[in-house]
Amino acid sequence: MATRSLPAPLDVPAPDALRAGHMVVGIAIGLTALGLVMVYSTSGAMHAAAGQRQADGLLRQLRWVVIGAVAGFIVSRLSLQTLRRISTPVLGFALVLLVATLVFSPAVKGSRRWLYIAGFSIQASEVLKIGALLYLADRLATRERDQARGAPSHLLSMLAPVGIGVVLVLVEPDLGASLFLVAEAVVLLGLAGIRPTRVVPFALTVIPVIVLFAYTRFPHVRDRLAIYASGAGSGTQLHEALIGIGSGGLVGKGLGEGAQKLGYFSEAHNDFIFAVIGEELGFLGCAAVVVAFMAFVWYGRKVAWSARSLGPHAFYLAAGATFIVSFQALINIAVVTATAPTKGVSLPFISTGGSNLLMACVCVGLILNVSRRAAAEGNEEAL
């Protein structure tokens, strides 16, 4: 299978590579801090109305922040060889979690997406995003080495385990997560230099099949597409979210002063938290979040390209981790602003929920890991 040449390493001094990794961590910390404030602002009102402690939602989120920080730190310290060794087991673990979710989890709003273990709820599709990244980064790097030796490579067999995961996620059903996984795979294949004639037909075949299957089998998908086509639909969550964003003006109504979170849409602390930011912190607050994610992409890209000196595996890890966080942020903001059809997608670092926060922290850990090793490689070359 023919490939085009991969991007060459950027001419980035070793300290700059490490600084870019530290900037990614700093951005993540800033967004997480904002998330804690907004989770308290949104969930506190709901808990108070239910006669519960206002801080319950904040305390749960803090627990996941600690777990995510520990996980990200551990990942940042693992060797690249260790990450390659555990790639297939992590993907296999994610597939087992998906099967267990389908078999043992109760249906919530018509879907089975969360596995409940010892008081914790785990969304297996989030684990699969990391498993697919680790697995594809390893397999694509191995494929490049084998091709350099003249050995054949088989794209379909390599993608088969990830494809099984996509099918299991679709059965839950979770159309958005399944399409996200397909996009993740296509982006990594493109970064690996696989010809568009091999990648584009795959995407143009798989994505319409997934959408058609979901549209014909799951009524809520048809309803959401109809609402989007009708212009947000008066009285829907999306309509109320737009009212919240519009009413915030330039600087917002002030923290805790938003009204739309008080029962007008049910996922104010999760999928629609960006609307609460718009209402309470205004256009400036929304713009700050968007700029922060743009900076995340910039510095994550800088780490990925500078890591080419470490080999393709490190490049795929950093680029893939940057894509996962930034693309999910893009989808969430597009949904809340009625730019895309409604889909339950969390805003990384900010929305409440443990699985997504844990996934985002692991991605940051991977980027920091690669930046540290790229910096060390650059320092050795400079000696």
Overview of this protein structure:
With 383 residues, the chain is mostly helical. The protein has one domain (27-149, 158-382). It is 72% helix and 2% strand. It contains twelve helices and two strands, in the order αααββααααααααα. The protein has helices at 14-49, 56-77, 80-104, 124-148, 155-171, 175-191, 196-217, 219-229, 237-247, 273-306, 312-336, 354-382, and strands at 114-117, 120-123. A two-stranded antiparallel sheet has the order 1-2. Strand 1 and strand 2 form a beta hairpin. Mean pLDDT is 84; it is low at 1-5.
List the helices and strands and how they pair.
Blueprint: H1 14-49, H2 56-77, H3 80-104, E1 114-117, E2 120-123, H4 124-148, H5 155-171, H6 175-191, H7 196-217, H8 219-229, H9 237-247, H10 273-306, H11 312-336, H12 354-382
Antiparallel strand pairs: 1-2
List keywords for this structure.
single chain; mainly alpha; 383 residues
